[in-house]
Amino acid sequence: MTDPVENNLIENNPVIGQAPAREEPKTIDFLRHGQGEHQFDGGHSILDPCLTADGRDQASSWTKKMGIVGGRYDLILVSPLKRCIETALFAFGETRKPGGKKDRTLSRFVLCRHARERYWHDSEGNLSAPNHWDPEDNLEQFLTDLASREDAPLPRALEILHLNAADRGCLPGTGSVAEVRMEEGAPKDEASSVEALREELLARPEKRIAVVCHAGVMKYFCGFTSAQPDLENCELIQTEVKDGRIVPAGTAHAELTGAKPPLFTACRRRAPGGKRTR
Fold it and tell me: Most CB within 10 Å of its CB: which of 17, 187, 198, 242?
């Protein structure tokens, strides 16, 4: 016999008896920097190059096409090298609401040394920490110049440095701060630095994260093989977190529907515009 009390509950609470709504996974999009001066005309001797004109065009093309990847991020972690800072600002520094109004409050920019390539030594074999966190090393001036440039100024550049903040633009409570201050427990080599980035990404409470970084970092996370085409400048790879692992975007949905799990190669997105370069 049907319980009338149970019937009443179900009639007035249609959610009862249904499967709980599936929680959307945390997503992490890795974006490689645009073409740097070191990639153009044999300029590999430049230790911290800026973007070329083509690199700026590549990065800017993402601003107009953010609908391709969802459009908004809760947090954008940025390698502290200049080509990545410029890429982040050109790609994500200005977003627009559906009504067309500019909105500069949606995404938080944070410098993250774990996302850096060639962190431990420069081409001369010199240890490179902690140069790009020291205002005397011209990062402050670099960001100020970006914010006030005559051609396409990037006013959000000053947000990255947090000039008056004690954490100096780092994420409190994460490896970024420990690494900059050379505290106990900071990574001692390149492999442990990238692993620290993985731990940081998994621990962050934000649900939509972008990481503006380098080809080597992306290959580390996305299981690249020699058979796969090299990453292009400003190429983006979409991933998500499942069971404490960074996996191809769409993995959770595939498992829910019984579809074949996607590969990282299916999650690659070329820059929507600009010259194609590697």
Answer: 187
